[in-house]
Amino acid sequence: MTEELIIKKNDQEIYGKIYYPEKDGKHPAIICSHGYNGTNSDFVQECTYFAQNGYVAYAYDFCGGSVNSKSSGKPADMTVFTEKEDLLAVFNYIQNLENVDSSQIFLFGGSQGGFVTALAAEELMDKVKGMVLYFPALNIPDDWRRTYPDKDKIPGITDFWGLTLGKEFFLSIHDFYTFDNIGSYPNNVLIIYGNKDNLIPYNTMLEAKKAYNNAQLIILENEGHGFSPSGGKKAREMVLDFLKKIKHSHFMA
Q1: Is 20 helix (H, G, I), strand (E, B) or coil?
Q2: What is the pLDDT of residues 106-128, one digit of tens each?
Q3: Distance between CA atoms of residues 109 and 103, nearest Å
Q4: Rounded Cα–Cα distance for residues 232 and 218 (Å)
Q5: Dihedral-angle region of residue 147 (phi above 0 means left; psi in -120 to 50 means alpha; beta otherwise)
Q6: Three-class SS of residue 231?
């Protein structure tokens, strides 16, 4: 069963869809965070698959995260950190659902949503049972520092890949160094990355694996930034395997 679920965050509304398993009772949950200019519908296949396998799955639109977002807010007000706040609000809501086992909540994010997921996990820590990152864009601050090395020269607005971003997007990450700020999340992490990804350097993935105590990095051959149908199917199966192992044991990567 799938239904729309709107979560309040201060004066904003976060729009998403929640997918339920057929059986009643308490279930583990997985929260899916989309990439730059994406929406919850990017994860329809993932959420459907996880729900079929006994997980409550929720995918949502970041506030101002896309031209097609059904959540509040404008892209010009969005930053990586407003997206992190969205995810924290979503987490707080999902963990209190009657049919969710709050000790079994997993985070899942792709690209910029993977970066945001990694940042949220640093705050939630043990509340998150495990974390899955598809080609996480942990290099975003580095990339924009190169583009705008001088804070004073950051323009008021920047049009980038279909979104009109405000100055704050760049200012907020200018002095933020990803690997000084992630890695203390203690539980299991699964990173899946395609070896033909032309947006995220392979070295960034190696650094991410090293940053965490319990991280596993899987490289998919001939997959890019965003997986093909066959790559996506393979990745979903690997994710389910990872989730099941953690659920049933103290699995160490």
Answers
A1: coil
A2: 999 999 999 999 999 999 999 99
A3: 19
A4: 13
A5: alpha
A6: helix
Question: What end-to-end distance do the CA atoms of the chain give, in Å?
Answer: 33
DSSP state letter for 151:
G
- At 143, list the tokens: 């990339």
Number of helical H runs and strand E runs in the chain: 8, 10
CA distance 56 to 21: 6
Evaluate if pTM is beyond 0.85: yes
Per-residue confidence at 249, pLDDT binned at 50, 70, 90? Answer: low
**Residue 39 backbone phi and psi in degrees, to 5:** -145, 175
- The answer to whether 125 and 185 have CB atoms below 8 angstroms apart is yes
How far apart are the C-alpha atoms of 4 and 59, rounded to whole Å? 10
* CA dist., res. 9 & res. 7, Å (int): 7
Gap between the Cα atoms of 117 and 128, Å rounded: 11
Separation of alpha carbons 54 and 97, rounded Å: 15
